[in-house]
Amino acid sequence: MNATKKTGRILIAGGGTGGHVYPALATIEALKESGDYDFLYVGGRGGIETRIVPKYNIPMQTIWISGFNRSLSLKNFLFPMKLLSSLYSSWKIVRAYKPQVAVGMGGYVTGPILYMASRMGVPVLIQEQDAHPGVTTRLLARYARKICLAFEQAKSHFSDYEKKLVVTGNPIRQMGALSREEGLKEWNLDPQNRTLFVFGGSQGSRAINTALNKLLPELLEDDSLQIIWQTGQGEYEAVKAGLSVQDERVVLLNYIENMPAAFAAADIIICRAGASSLAELAMAEKATILVPYPYAAGNHQELNSRMVEEAGAAKMVKEGEEWHLELKAALETLLRSPEKRSGQGAAGKKLAKPNAAKHIAAQIDALIAA
Fold this sequence. Notes:
The protein is of the alpha/beta class. It has two domains: 6-170 and 353-369, Glycogen Phosphorylase B (Rossmann fold), CATH 3.40.50; 180-351, Glycogen Phosphorylase B (Rossmann fold). Helices cover 41% and strands 17% of the residues. The chain is built from 14 helices and 13 strands. The strands form two sheets. It has a seven-stranded parallel β-sheet, sandwiched between helices. Helix 4 (110-119) links the parallel strand 4 (101-104) and strand 5. Helix 3 packs across helix 4 (110-119) and helix 10 (275-284) packs across helix 13. The longest helix has 19 residues, at 79-97. It is globular, with a radius of gyration of 21 Å. It starts with 5 loop residues before the first strand and ends with a helix.
């Protein structure tokens, strides 16, 4: 006889960037394999999740919340109002949906909904993506039944909650299913050329875009180089209008839905050091130059970058005066050396945790069954 499939209602929250949304979607896919669950996704009003999640036919509701700006900003005056509104909306959502478990995948949106769920007796699981945990995770830790960590290094920040901790890694979209040739076909690129893939996270990076544009004339003197460049939606028009060189070997895109294809196509990658990007890079086994976002909370992107660099899986280049010259030098080293490229890819593979989504799903299953 076949075992009865597990059922239940799971509320899952995460948003603000694709780095929170895609791990949530990967976890949902793993949960669908383990049980016949019902899902409700809670995101922030106007967040990137409102554009991504509906495409997966997952029911979604939103709350009116945003992050607190660490610099002096008029937007901060709205924060108390947004927080109160979000807590009330969260109470209504939890009361109506009656989840068996509430799961937070990162971002400011998880704060009100998970706090309210815990106060209403719903078991809460938090997934922390960074080696240096964010403020929301640290505040919610006392209310969580289980805290899933991406890195062993994060344990030191939760010494009071040791029994709740489990290291699972970061859940990601499936990587490695596509060959390099299949990835290149997505943009009709030449398989004989080396391919540089540049992106600054789901929202783009003005600093990386500016640096690459400065380097573009020299880079394209190499006839065997082609570039996939995701600018970010807000940056696309400005980058397109200000391109230093017009060349068909440069594929300029505002946003890439098929990131597995871009990773598969790449020989070298330049990107920010968000935790989800790092998890995907480890699975993709590609040579990488990391440019940490210098204003990330707790400087977590530099800490992430340093950890990966020390493992031999990437080169870190920090922003600063004339930093594009250091970026150029790092890129030229990788372009000249197939051995360095393959060495970084192999080192990245050792950091990969391909079953992270399944491990987190198992923890959620256990909370529902308890």
